[in-house]
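Re: the request from the purification team.
They wanted to know what the chain is likely to look like in 3D before they choose a buffer screen. I agreed to run a prediction and write the result into the notebook, where they can find it.
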Amino acid sequence: MRNRIVGVLIIFVALLMGFIIFSFNRAMTEIVNTSCEHGSSCPMWGTIDFQTNVSIAIMSFVVIIGIYLIFFGKEERNPAKGEIKDASIKKEAYEKIMKTLNDEEKTVLERIIDANGTIFQSGLTDETNFNKVKVTRILDKLEGRGIIERRRRGMTNVVILKH
């Protein structure tokens, strides 16, 4: 829905540009008619034609962008409140992965699962009593295996469990 609205707004802006181009072209033609004594061989006529053609090309490009957004722009859908699945994460779903991890990695992964799959990295250091460097190295390993993902949030990272 948003892409269509943006597309319509862009086309509206392009039409406004077209009106300005038309008005400017008309005013410039009148100025050249009164000030140019050479007739149609006056270099100002070429300038008016060039400026008009460039501005119409720009306006056409903007219209094409608007049409693309209206008809072909992909809509991002946010799930409605009723469509959200159960957010609770079960440890049983990660039993196979847990068998491949060492004790420290298991501890960190369990804390992430206990936090429903999202926790601040600084929270992990508090909950596991591991130092920051150790938590970072463990998270590097888990992220390398594709088990978790880290996203920057302010001065810390948010650790997100991949499903």
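For the purification team: Residues 80-87 have pLDDT under 50 and may be disordered.
Please add any questions underneath this entry.
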